[in-house]
Amino acid sequence: MHEYPVDPPFQPMMNHGHQHQHPVHGSHDTPSRLTIIAHGSLNQDQLWRLCDFFPGLDYCNVRHDQKSRQCYATTVYNSAPAAAYAKEKLHGFEYPPGHRLIVKFDSVQQDSPGRSGLYSSCS
Fold first, then answer.
1. Average of pLDDT values for 82-101?
2. Average model confidence (pLDDT) for the chain?
3. Which CATH number fits domain 33-106: 3.40.50.150, 3.40.47.10, 3.30.70.330, 3.40.50.80?
4. What is the pLDDT of residues 16-73, one digit of tens each?
5. Distance of alpha carbon 74 from its chain centroid, rounded?
6. What is the 3-state secondary structure (H, E, C) of 88-110?
7. What pTM value is reported for the model?
8. Whole-number Å distance between alpha carbons of 83 and 103
9. pLDDT over 70 (residue 93)
10. Is residue 38 exposed (0-12), middle (13-18) or buried (19+ Cβ within 10 Å)?
């Protein structure tokens, strides 16, 4: 029987809490914060795992709007390139199948303590 070398499992673009792969930018002008609008059946853990598939995720907070039955998430990546990459890959992705994600850069400045008006009607 032949023995072949076994490579470790390939896990593309996963960030398991190790060193950040991108430099951290401190400027509030750096667009590293995203807003995601998704189907209301998704929960915090599901969206965290989906967003964490892309390197650099620092934060993910999910809120549900009972009226629209949609889920709104704010995600923060540790750099503008990380956020741009996540946005490029997630926008339009069907999750759950049949329901496309809407992903855009958040208009709220990063160091602003307030929340976007988008969340004012969420419970």
1. 97
2. 76
3. 3.30.70.330
4. 343 334 344 444 456 799 999 999 999 999 999 999 999 999 999 999 999 999 999 9
5. 7
6. HHHCCCECCCCCECEEEECCCCC
7. 0.65
8. 10
9. yes
10. buried
According to DSSP, the residues that pair with 76 across neighbouring strands are: 33, 59
Give the chain's end-to-end CA distance (angstroms, integer).
61
Length of the chain as a residue count = 123
Which pair of tokens denotes residue 38? Answer: 């998704």
Report d(CA 51, CA 44) in Å as an integer. Answer: 11
For 91, other C-beta atoms within 10 Å of its C-beta total 14
Helix, strand, coil percentages (3-state) for the chain, rounded to 5, are 20, 25, 60
pLDDT cut 90: percent of the chain above it: 61
User: What residue spans define the domains of the chain?
Assistant: 33-106
- Tokens in use for 14? 């996963």
